[in-house]
Design goal:
It is found in: Endoplasmic reticulum. Its main location: endoplasmic reticulum. With about 350 residues, the protein is α/β, with parallel strands linked by helices. It has a single domain, classed as Rossmann fold. The protein has twelve helices and seven strands. The strands form two sheets. A four-stranded parallel beta sheet has the order 3-2-1-4, with helices on one face. β5, α8 and β6 form a beta-alpha-beta unit.
């Protein structure tokens, strides 16, 4: 009797693990085959415009180029105007699509949202993005055909501290920035802009979370917690918006070589460098999942990492993340001490 119960439990656990880890690749294959038969451009399915936040560097810039290559007009959003204009010029020259720039500072907190609501709601904007009141918005006629692509994570209007730190070592302003940018921004913008997307009965929201969301991360505690929030929020939002024809995709990447992860490759040890995926390689896989699956790691190697982590209990995941982060923290302190000598 006991052996039968244990066998049934084992089969159930295996079935759950297989579902959680093979659901995305199976759906990706099926949806790819479907789209080979029923071809439809992204601009036809979602709208003419793709609005990308955190678009001046890294993953956000990668998404901008990918979607522009698919023929979509691009709205770039970030706080560095010079970088945004440079990326916009690159996109126009390489892909020949219309490109607009919006300058936005997302660390301002609650004070910016009444202005955002006042500026965006009358335009019937079908996007999720951030911008200051004085930013140049697309015209109302264009806003009726916008695809909503919202990024809130590493290099996509996301912040983290430069290196792994204990919570008491992180400057308070950095902690507030983490909360304002990684948590509050996506939540409030969805609250403000989801109604117009629901009225239009179409749209796509891409929330970039992180592999850190699957387990608490010592020395990156606040960042990991903000990513866990993003994953949970996105999954719930997906269920809320599905009846209205609005799609939500959650992306949970592991290490991608961007400006925010430069500190991981500055040391002499090669293990961290070998774990990195270049942005162009990441986008080659992540781009293929757009409009096909609602949950992805963005890259096949990251999917293997997530599958492996899901096999172990949380206490082991905490130990693994803590071991990596504490090692990086020690390495950073050694480098700093050497520079001071």
């Amino acid at each position: 009797m006991f052996c039968s119960l244990a066998a049934c439990l084992g089969v159930y656990v295996a079935a759950v693990w297989l579902y959680e880890n093979f659901r995305t690749p199976v759906l990706l294959v099926l949806q790819t085959l479907k789209q080979l038969v029923f071809r439809q451009k992204l601009s036809q399915r979602y709208g003419q415009w793709a609005v990308i936040t955190g678009a001046s560097d890294g993953i956000g810039k990668g998404y901008a180029h990918y979607l522009a290559a698919k023929g979509m007009a691009i709205v770039l959003v970030a706080r560095n105007a010079a970088k945004l204009n440079k990326v916009a010029d690159e996109i126009r020259a390489k892909h020949g699509v219309e490109t607009k720039v919006l300058v936005a500072d997302f660390s301002k907190g609650a004070e910016i949202y009444p202005q955002l609501e006042k500026a965006l709601v009358p335009l019937d904007v079908g996007i999720l993005g951030k911008c200051r009141l004085h930013a140049s918005f697309p015209s109302p006629s264009h806003c009726n055909t916008l695809i909503g692509v919202w990024f809130c994570t590493v290099n996509n209007v996301g912040v983290s501290h430069d290196t792994p730190m204990y919570v008491d070592e992180v400057p308070q302003q950095t902690l507030w920035d983490l909360i304002h940018v990684n948590v509050a921004a996506a939540t409030l913008l969805c609250n403000i802009l989801a109604p117009s997307m629901k009225r239009r009965q179409r749209g796509l929201i891409i929330n970039v979370s992180s592999i850190a969301s699957v387990g608490p991360s010592p020395c990156m505690a606040t960042y990991a917690a903000s990513k866990a929030y993003m994953t949970s929020f996105s999954i719930a939002l997906r269920d809320e918006l599905r009846p209205f024809g609005v799609e939500v995709q959650t992306v949970r990447p592991s290490f991608v070589h961007t400006n925010m992860t430069d500190f991981l490759v500055t040391g002499k040890e090669k293990w961290s460098k070998n774990m990195m995926v270049r942005v162009d390689n990441f986008m080659a896989y992540a781009g293929c999942t757009i409009g096909k699956v609602d949950m992805t790691s963005g890259h096949w190697s990251h999917g293997l990492q997530l599958a492996g982590l899901s096999l172990v209990p949380e206490v082991v995941r905490v130990y693994i993340f803590g071991l990596i982060n504490k090692k990086l923290r020690e390495q950073f302190h050694v480098q700093n001490n050497n520079k001071k000598r």
